[in-house]
Amino acid sequence: MHLRKVKNASLIIDEAKDVCIVNPTEYKGNWLSFYPSAKKIVLEIGMGKGQYLTNLALLNKDVLYLGMEKMDSVICRAIPKVKDYNLSNLILIKTDAINLSSCFMPNEVDTIYLSFPDPWPKSRHDKRRLTHPKFLKLYKEILTTKGTLRLKTDNVDLYNYSLETMALYLDNPKYGEYIHEENEPKTEFEEKYLKLGKKIYFIEGKFKDENPL
């Protein structure tokens, strides 16, 4: 879904240095300095307007949530939510997922969420999909040995594509239609799709010890 550009988006981001990090490589290996009492780090890649992570951060005070987004007009929409709730356990990161290994040490992240990523439907764009092997290798590098990767999508084609790629890397992953629990936090996209009666699919699991061929 196309979002209109936000006027002065770069200025909004620049004035929110307390909640939005634009130089994430400087915090590699030291993300818990923002919230030392955290028992684990959860990263959402492509966190949109931040509704999902904001609600999770409100519910789980022992977790440091990191929301990664590369688009100025998207991340600046999430900034007010973080500020309004004064959430010290939620930090926004402005960068592209391709830079993950420059932002995190190996075994630094406990969970990675891919929530309704762009499906990039054209086959020539498959390398841009967040479940392409080049990204899966990055996730495995920064996740702890028991770390979890989870994809949620309404796009059947992306789901089927991801079943094939993620099966190479994950150890006996869970997958299928996602059944929501009552009062479970949802992304903006998720709420919209559920109201339209669309099915939501998920794939979730831990990485295999060995690398795929």
SSE sequence, one letter per element: HEEHEHEHEHEHEHE
Helix-residue proportion: 25-40%
Characterize the largest beta sheet: strand count, sense, and whether it forms a barrel.
8 strands, mixed
Distance between the termini: 35 Å
What portion of residues belong to β-strands?
Answer: 15-25%
Lateral strand order in the biggest sheet: 1-4-3-2-5-6-8-7
Quickly count the helices: 7
Regions with pLDDT < 50 over 5+ consecutive residues?
none
Structural class of the helices, strands and pairings? alpha/beta
Shape: globular
- Taking Cα atoms only, what radius of gyration do you get, to the nearest Å? 17 Å
Arithmetic mean of pLDDT: 92
Count of distinct strands: 8
Can you give me a brief rundown of this structure?
The chain is α/β, with parallel strands linked by helices. The protein is built from seven helices and eight strands. An eight-stranded mixed β-sheet has the order 1-4-3-2-5-6-8-7, sandwiched between helices.
Give structural notes:
- The protein has 213 residues and is of the alpha/beta class.
- It contains seven helices and eight strands, in the order αββαβαβαβαβαβαβ.
- It has an eight-stranded mixed beta sheet, sandwiched between helices.
- Helix 5 (133-142) links the parallel strand 5 (109-115) and strand 6 (143-153).
- The radius of gyration is 17 Å and the shape is globular.
Question: What keyword list fits this structure?
Answer:
alpha/beta, eight-stranded mixed β-sheet
SSE blueprint and pairings:
Elements: H1 9-14, E1 20-21, E2 40-45, H2 51-59, E3 63-69, H3 72-85, E4 90-94, H4 100-103, E5 109-115, H5 133-142, E6 143-153, H6 156-167, E7 170-177, H7 188-195, E8 201-207
Parallel strand pairs: 1-4, 2-3, 2-5, 3-4, 5-6
Antiparallel strand pairs: 6-8, 7-8
